[in-house]
Amino acid sequence: MSGASEEPAIETRGLTKRFGRQAAVDNIDLAVPRGAVFGFLGPNGSGKTTTIRVMLGLAGATAGSVRVLGEEMPARLREVLPRVGALVEGPAFYPFLSGADNLRRFDTADRHAPTRTRRARVADALERVGLSHAAGKKVRAYSLGMKQRLGIANALLMPRDLLVLDEPTNGLDPQGTREVRHLVRSLAAEGTTVFVSSHLLAEVEQICTHAAIMSAGRLVAQGTLESMRRSGRARMKLTTPDPADAGRVLRGLGLGLEGDGEQLTAPLVDGLLPEQIVAALVAEGVRVRGFAVENSTLEERFVALTGEGFDVVQ
Ligand SMILES: Nc1ncnc2c1ncn2[C@@H]1O[C@H](COP(=O)(O)OP(=O)(O)OP(=O)(O)O)[C@@H](O)[C@H]1O
Question: Which member of 58, 110, 174, 301 has the greatest number of CB atoms within 10 A?
Answer without folding.
Answer: 301
